[in-house]
Structures are given as structure tokens and as C-alpha cells.
Amino acid sequence: MRRAALWLAALALAGVVLPPWYLVQDRLADIDWSGGWLTEPDHAPAVSQALLFGRWWLWPVLATAAAAAASLLLPARRSLARALAACGTLGLLALIIQGYAIGLGGWRFAVLEAVFGPLGDRQFGIGTGATLAALAFLWMATTGLAGLGFFRGDPFTAGAVGTVALAVILFTFLPIASLLSDAFRTSEGTYTLGALFGRLGDDRTWGLACLAGAPRCGVAWNTLMLALMTAGGTTALGLAFALLVTRGGIRFPRALRTLTILPIITPSFVIGLGLILIFGRSGIVNQLLYGAFGIEGGRWIYGLQGVWLAQMFAFTPTVFLVLIGVVEGVSPTMEEAAQTLRANRWHTFATVSLPLMRPGIANAFLVAFVESIADFGNPIVLGGNFGVLSTEIFFAVVGAQADAGRAATLALVLLVFALGAFWAQARITGSRSYVSIAGKGDGGVHPPLPAWVRRLCLGVALPWAGLTILLYAMALTGGFVETWGRDYTPTLRHLVRAFDLEWSARGLIWSGVAWNSVWTTVKLAAVAAPLTAALGIIAAWLFTRQSFVGRRALEFATMLSFAVPGTVIGVAYIYAFNVPPLELTGTGIIIVLCFMFRNLSVGLRSGMAAMSQIDRSLDEASFTLGGGGLDALRRVILPLLRPAIIAALAYSFVRAVTTVSAVIFLVSAEYELATVFIINRVINGDYGVAITTSTALIVTMGAVLALIQVVVGSRRIRRRAPALAAGARA
Amino acid sequence: MNAPPNGVEVDAVSFAYGANVILDDVSLAVPRGEFFAFLGPSGSGKTTLLRLIAGFGRPERGAIRVGGRDVTGAPPWDRNVGMVFQNYALWPHMTVAENVAFGLHRRRVPRAEVARRVEQALDLVGLEGYGGRRPAQLSGGQQQRVALARTVVIEPEVLLLDEPLSNLDAQLRVEMRGELRALQRKTGLTTIFVTHDQEEANAISDRMAVLDGGRIQQIGRPVDLYDRPANRFVAGFLGTANLVEGEVARQQEGLVFRSAEGIVLPAPDDVAPGRALVALRPQALSISENGRAPSIAGEVRRTEFLGGHVRYAIEAHGLTFYVDEPHLRGREALAPGTRVQLAADPEQLTFLRP
Fold first, then answer.
1. CB crowding B291-329: b at 16 or more within 10 Å, else e
2. Which chain A residues are within 8 Å of B91, Cβ to Cβ?
3. A24-38, A175-189, A295-309: least confident range
4. H or E stretch at B304
5. Which of A6, A129, A209, A604 has a CB 3.0–4.6 Å from the CB of A214, allowing a cystine?
6. Is residue A511's pLDDT more than 70?
7. From edge to edge, which strands make up the β-sheet containing B296-305?
């Protein structure tokens, strides 16, 4: 522990005396690194801020850092631990208190003003120095606690718990809390319950006029109606696909399975784009109708039916993937038992298989429900006058009204819907899951589907799969014709406009219009992916392998944070990180953070799945041989987890590249992302560049995943070797 | 009156997964009311054979008759068989009573009678009053009983048990074994029991078939199989056997077995001269420190105290013989290194074709 204490004290001291304490607005190259920065007000470290510029509220921070260094002189292990825990906690408190007591206009609370007098200074965003100091204090506190016997005395576990907890609190719960407080704030800046209820009661949100024949209902009802329709439809379709693939006895089940990759590599709005190309005003269908019968197709694709159709295409593969697990999870012996008791295929299916799948099907329904309410891309592209919560929030933020209170209230409604679904999901999967996980003695093969069920599934799924492929084909190739709807001459014009490269005297110039956003996306996603994977794997390790006070609470909070729709997170981030001390709006950091916490679930889930396959006795063997938590993780678990880690890296990268909903609020002129660039092109009717850019993204992401597949290899765990299963069917 | 048909007949059945032959020309008949065991190591094909009788999979060649009716190719629901699965396969979404009633509903039994027979079946397995519970609320042993009740309630032509005791702990396993046997006596159901545990098969079955490599090695009463194994595999799989290869030849004093290592044993008159394999059970050999002819000279290598007897490993002529001597209080085992003579009782030798 003494070594760890030494390092942490050094880190804290370094944080306060060396790097700029506050956020640096200039470019790093503009700072006088030769030494001048130490005495410049904008770039100075905490020591000079306190000494030279009278920022006396930094003294407690400096004092605790010094105290931590001094505590190294304590001879007894236990008193050192106590000192570390105290210094860490006090240091963090000192940081937080000074950070929130001083706002943009001096003291934030009248009491402080009365005690200390007017401040004549303001708060700035925290910079490198403050971040280092905060981390050092956090780890001091956890190391001290571990030294006092908490966390089974393991400093690494303690530090990991502290880091994950702080991260989840800072970057999920804090923004949401500040969003909630915005919902209570009136336009004059005071907080009242009335403000919330006034907005909640708004007709635009909850109006039911459409039932009486008026053109539209409130957006909350729109969202719910769309979500229920999408969830119902995708669940039915997904079930047909899953049944067909797992027990339909079809020739190419793997080909159908590849459909499940699509939603990962495509931004969701690509479907909307494809639909416009087919059913839009100048889409193929309208043209054919006009050409053949002289009928004007009109713009029926814009509105509820269009968004619904798009979501059906977009989310069926996701639900399909969930349901494959559900259908395969039913133990075959359960079905065999029914068969020996005179139940034929249909009876077995109806009385045993389906009831056993029911909780899983309900779960899939909720997954689709959440996907639908969180979807931003399709409603923005196809919604027309049909508003849903996610798009209304967007317009409330960026529109002419810029009504933060309304955005917050709508986000609150959306959050309540999502948490309702999360709660229902937790109940279903917690209490009545019949799917056997690693059940023992689970031999046997699933019986084939009853004949007419199989025909029904085939009749539904195959045409749908065909349509999906057609849609993707349109969406991918639509950018390679002159002008869709008018002139179908093949051309690379749009591709060139998006991704042109020029050689000039000064070298290569990335002159295509899409390059900027694509490079930004790739860069930020590449920064976020390893961080996401690391945080996810560490959290997974904590949740599956460690036991400490509050583990269940932390796990629940983390899972809960995944339930928050992207739009809500996006809005929450801009409001929460707009002002010091955490001033991140407009930076690349906020986008990286958003990527990390939106995709944390990827690393966490793949880590948890992989770790549950590794027997605990492997860690215990490492413990008995004298390794601590870090040793067990590094030398035993991580090597076994390599495939899961690579997968987590790849998926968090790909998802970061294709995400829309949250980041659309966070982009700035400097940091524009590819998906947002595409949406803006679509909104402007510039389909050519939009499509070619999407195509480039999808193809690249597909290639990334294919590469990973080759590297990691397929590790699907089968119930029986395929040859055996085939033989048993014969 | 005609002779009653057999409960189950398996007639020259072969089965393969692709190129992988699982069962090769298997034939056997289980008379009505018999408790029959399939015994074999894992991969011997015993579970596959049971599943073929239940109707899961179709033999490539051969026929299967249940209750005198040819059911080859019929689906499981058309066979009137009952099967208890290794993991019991109780449906978690139904109560115990609903689980048990399932087969009766499928047989269109009137409602009142269903209730009565479910009650009766639960009584039979000692679970009266448990009808309203869910399977998840029961212990492993109780789940096992429900699975049994669910199967016997339909009065199947044959009761198939797929390693039903393997998920229970040792004590309960022995207890359930007795109960299974008693239940079978009470109901008189033809029963086939799959196991890899020879003690289980010996204790429970009227007759058994030993399988290995997809072939039936021997069929018979447990004691007959133990005393007169048909081949090297059966001799080695059922209990411990010392196997010696050699040749039987006629000499003045009668037939004599002689191995390449120089071991000489008397052979009974009904053995044909020529190459032979002799199986000696550990209890068929006796140890004396000064032997009479014909005896085998050897040296004690290791001893294991096993409670009722002491097992010696004795090296003689480069071979290791296992010999069991009964243990009585006060008797000390021979120390390793002791030179001894082994004598074999000619009545206890088994001569096999090598």
C-alpha cells in the first residue's frame, strides 16, 4: 500500500503544481511551455492560482495534497490507511465544494456572499491539473479504505469501484438530475412544481384531439402509439425469423442470421432514406404508378405510417437477435417430455414451447419498444408533421423557440416511458425466466416446427427479408445515379463530391465535403472505443467476480443508465456540461464521453457473458497463490477474455460511428460527426451525398466487423455438433 | 391363450450420425413387466438406443416393437412410451398437478378421472398434497418423483429412464434406487433404465444389456454377467478382473493353461484347447506364504485397506494381480515385499476367447 500511496501523493502534487489547473481555451501550442505558463493566469497550475492570483479557495485542495504527501511519514500501516482515506475524501470534498459554490457570476449562494463578501471572480472549467488531482484524491480515498479492510482489503478492487461509481454518477446521473431540475424551472429562472405541471399538461404533449378527428394528437401519445405498433410488429416478425432459423429446417439459416448484423453497422435513418427512394415523392413506386396509370402517389410515406414502416425494417433484426436466444434457450427435453406424453408437434409447440418462450418474447417486445421511443433518425427523416418526443426535444433545443424548459419536460416524459419499460423488463427477466442458462444434462435437439406454423413463418419472413435486402440495396446504390427520380444515369459524381482527394503543391487535400465529418467521427470513435471497452470490462469484472457493499446498487444504477434514451442523454449533456466546473460543450471530449457512456453496455455485456463462462475457481486459484485482485484480473481473466475484449472494442467503435440520437445535440462546427452530416444533407434534400456517405460508412463498418470475425473467429456455443443435429433430423 | 408379447423388442437396429456409427445391429427383447438396464460407458450408444425406443430419431435399419406393435418411424406421441429425463424436464410454467395431468389431457381422459389419477400418481411417489406447487419450489429428489408420477400416470407400455439418478447426491441416489424398484414392482410396468454405474444396474435390474461401441456385448441377469462374462470388455467393465492371455493344451493330468510369462493354471474339461484368455476375479485367488502346486509365485507390491477386505497388488511373472482377502479384526495385512504364493480355484476361472 505504501507504494500506491507514494504514487498517488505524487500524482496529487503533480496535479496541483504542474499542468494548467483550469480548462485551456487556446491551442496547446500557444501556451508558453518554457516556463511562462506557471505565472500566466489562464494557464497556471493551482499553486500559482492561489499564490499569485488570490484564488484562496484552492488552498484547502493544496493543503490536502500536501497532507497526503506528509502522511507517507506515518510508520504504521493502519494509520497511513486512515490518513489516505481522510486526505482523499477531504480533497474531493474541497474540489467539489469550491467547484459548485462559485458560479459564473461569483458566489452562487447568498449566504456565502454574506460571509465572505463579494468575490470579484468567477469559476472556470476544470483542466488537466484539476482532473489529475481529482483522480488522485479519489484513488487515495479508495486505497485508504482498502487498507482499512474494506473491499476485502484489495486496493485495486476499491479503486475500480470508485472509478466506475464516479464515472456513472458524473456522466449519467448528474446530467439527468440537472435535466430534471430544468423541467421545474420557470422561464424567469425560479423553480416551481407548477412549471413542470404546466408544461406536462401542455396540449402539444398530451392532447387527444386526434381521437375526435383533429389532425394530430400530443407527441407523447404519438410516441407511445408508434412504439406499441413497432414493438408488436417487430416482435411478430422477429419471432417468425427466429423460429425459422432455429427449427425451421431451412437450407441456409446462416444467411438469415447475417440480417442481425445490419442494425449494428447501419445508422438507423438509412432505412428511412431507402424508403424515401422507394415510396417518396420521386420514389420508384410513385414513378411506376404515374407512368402506368397516371396516378400521383403523393407524400403518404411521410408521417406515422412511414416512420412505423422504417422502424419495422430497422428493428426487426434486433428483435430477431434477441429472440434467437429465447427460442434456443428452451430446453429440448422439455419438449421431448411433452412428445412422449402424446403431444404432437403442434400441441408441444402450443402448450410447452410457446409458454416457455413467453417471458423472452415479452422482453423482446420491450426491447423494440425502447428502440422505437429512443429512435431519432427515422422520425426526423420521415416524420413530416408527425412529431414524436425525440424529434420534438430536438426542435425545442435547436429550433427557433429554444425552450430549454420544454425540452427538459419532454425528455422527462421520454425518460419515464423508458424507465417504465426497463422496470417491466427487470420484472420479467428477474422473476419468470424459463430460459435455462447452462442447464445441466440438456441434451437433445429441438423438434421441428409444426408444418403450418413453418409455412406461416416462411410466408412472413422470407418476403420481409427480401424487402429488407431490396431496401438496403436501394439505400446503398441510390447515391450512384445522377438524380434519383429523374435521371438514373449511373455516376460517381456524388461520391466524388463527398470524398474527393486532390493533389496540390502542398500535398494531399481532402477536398470532399464528407471528409471532415468522417475523419472526426473515426478519430473520436477510435479514442472512445478502448476507453469504453476498458471501463466495460472492469465494470463487468466488478459485477460478476467481486462482492462489496453496494455492488448490487452500483450494478443496478449502471444498467439503469443504459435504459436512458440517447436523445435524453444528449439534451442532458448539453445543459449539464455547458457551465463550469465541468465545461465540455463544444469540445471533442463531450462527444467521446457520450460515446463511452452510450456504448458502455457493449463492453459490459460482452465482458459479463465471457466472464460467466470462466469458472470462479480460476481466480481463487490465483488468490491462493498470492495474487491480489489486479493479478487475478491481469494474469488469469484478461488473457481468457481476449476475444471478448476485441469484440467489445470493435462493437463500441462501430456503434460510436453509427449513432445519431445523443450526439446530434453535442456536435459543433469543429466536431461534426458523419451521421449528423448525413442527416443534415437529407434534411436539405441533398440525397446523393447523403447516400454515398452512408454507403461508405456501412461498407467500412461491415468490413471492420468482418475483420474482427476473422480475427476472433466464431465462438458460437452449440448444443450439439451440427452434424449430429442434422443426423437426428434425418 | 397366446404367449404375451414382449414389452419391447429391438430387432437388428443400426443407427449412425453421418459416418459416425452409434448403434450397430442391436437386438434385444424385454419381456413384459421386466426391469431391464442398459449399461455401458459414455459413448456406448445406450442413451441413443433408449431415445430410439422413445421415438427420437429413426433407425437406419431394423425394427422396434413396443407392446407387440411395430413403432419404427412412428413419432414419440404415437407410441405409448413414458420417459423420465436426466434433468427431469418438468415444465416450470405449470404446477406439479398440471405437469402430471398433461399426458392424461392429451389422452382425453374425463376431467374428474384426471383429478383422481393425478392424486393417485402423486400418492404413489409419496408426494400427496404437493399438486399445487411449482417445480422450482421442490428439491431435486421431489422433482424426480414428479417426473416419475407424470410418466407412470399414463400407464405407458414401457417406462424409459435416462440416467434418472445421476443428478442426485450419493445418499439419495441409493434411496431412490430402492424406491424405483418398489414402484416398478407395484405398477408392473416394463422398465428400461440407462446407466453407466454397474452397481446401480446390478442392484436394480432383473436383466441387463452391456453395450460398448454401439454393440451389445452381453445380455443376462447381473449375476450371470458377473460370473460368466462373455468377453474381455464385460469381464473388465463389471467389477475387477485379472486377465491373462495364453494357451490351453492337453497334458497327462488334464487340460492346462499356460501363459507366455510362465503362469500355469488348471483348466476345466469343457474348455477347447488353443489360444485363451483367463479372467480371474480378485476373490478367486487366495494367498498363502507356502504354496501348493499349481500356484504362482509373486511378491506383494501394495495393499489397500477397503473395510470388508484388503486388496493386494501382487507382482508375479511381470504381471500385476489384484487379490482380495477378507479382513477380520486383529488381522494385519501382509507387508509390501513379502513373497507369497497365489492359488486359483479352478471353479472360479473364466475362459474367454481372446
1. beeebbebebeebeeeeebbbbbbebeebebbbbbeeee
2. 334, 337-338, 352, 355-356
3. A24-38
4. strand B296-305
5. A209
6. yes
7. B285-288, B339-344, B296-305, B309-316, B319-326
Q: How confident is the model at residue A715 (pLDDT cuts 50, 70, 90)?
A: very low
Determine the 3-state secondary structure of B63 from DSSP: strand
- Give the length of chain B: 354
- Smallest CA–CA separation between A455 and chain B, in Å? 21
Which residues face B244 on adjacent strands? B278
Cα–Cα nearest to A297, from A310, A278, A311: A278
Of A334, A341, A439, the CB nearest to B103: A341
Name all domains of chain B by residue range, CATH numbers in brackets.
8-229 (3.40.50.300), 240-352 (2.40.50.140)
Asked if A347's CB is within 8 angstroms of B106's CB, the reply is yes
Distance CA A503, CA A520 (A): 21
> Which chain A residues in 338-367 lie under 8 Å from chain B, judged by CB atoms?
338-345, 347-348, 351-352, 355-356, 358
Q: Are B298 and B321 in contact (CB under 8 A)?
A: yes
- What is A505-712's CATH number? 1.10.3720.10
**Which residue do the cell numbers 487498507 mark?**
A147
Reply yes or no: is the peptide bond before residue B294 cis, omega within 30 of 0.
Answer: yes
Pairing of strands B81-84, B296-305: unpaired
Q: Between A288 and A432, whose confidence is greater?
A: A288
Q: Tens digits of per-residue pLDDT, A71-101?
A: 888 888 888 889 889 999 999 998 888 888 8
Q: Could you state, in order of their start, the residue ranges of all structural domains in chain A?
A: 2-148, 234-438+453-476, 505-712
pLDDT in tens, A641-674: 888 888 888 888 988 888 888 888 888 878 888 8
Average confidence (pLDDT) over B333-338: 89
CA gyration radius, chain A: 28
Interior/surface letters A625-639, b for 16+ CB within 10 angstroms, e for the rest: eebbbebbbeebbee
pLDDT band at A614 (very low <50, low <70, confident <90, very high): confident
**Residue in B54, B87, B154 closest to A440 by CB:** B87
In this prediction, does ipTM exceed 0.90? no
Find the range with the poorest average confidence among A38-52, A365-379, B135-149.
Answer: A38-52
Most confident region among A443-457, A529-543, A620-634 by mean pLDDT:
A529-543
* CA-wise closest residue to A182 among A575, A590, A574, A582: A575
Is the Cβ pair A333, B81 closer than 8 Å? no
Whether the per-residue pLDDT at B140 is higher than 50: the answer is: yes
Highest mean pLDDT among A213-222, A617-626, B86-95: B86-95
- Residue A17, CA distances (Å) to A13, A30, A36, A128, B99 in order: 6, 20, 14, 11, 73
- Options 3.40.50.720, 3.90.550.10, 3.40.30.10, 1.10.3720.10; CATH of A234-438+453-476: 1.10.3720.10
Work out the number of other CB atoms within 10 angstroms of the CB of residue A606: 24
How many beta carbons lie within 10 A of that of residue A522, not counting itself? 17
Block residue for cell numbers 465544494: A97
Question: Per-residue pLDDT tens for B278-290?
Answer: 998 998 888 887 7
The pLDDT assigned to A436 comes to 41
Count chain A–chain B contacts defined by CB atoms under 8 A: 99
When mean pLDDT is compared across A119-123, A238-242, A245-249, the lowest value belongs to: A119-123
Q: CB distance from B93 to chain A under 8 Å?
A: yes
> A343–B54: do the CB atoms touch at under 8 Å?
no
Query: Can you give the three-state secondary structure of A628-690, one letter per residue?
Result: CHHHHHHHHHHHHCHHHHHHHHHHHHHHHHHCCCCHHHCCCCCCCCHHHHHHHHHHCCCHHHH
Cell of residue A440, nine digits: 445441466
Contact B130, B83 (CB under 8 A): no
B318: nearest Cα among B274, B275, B261? B261
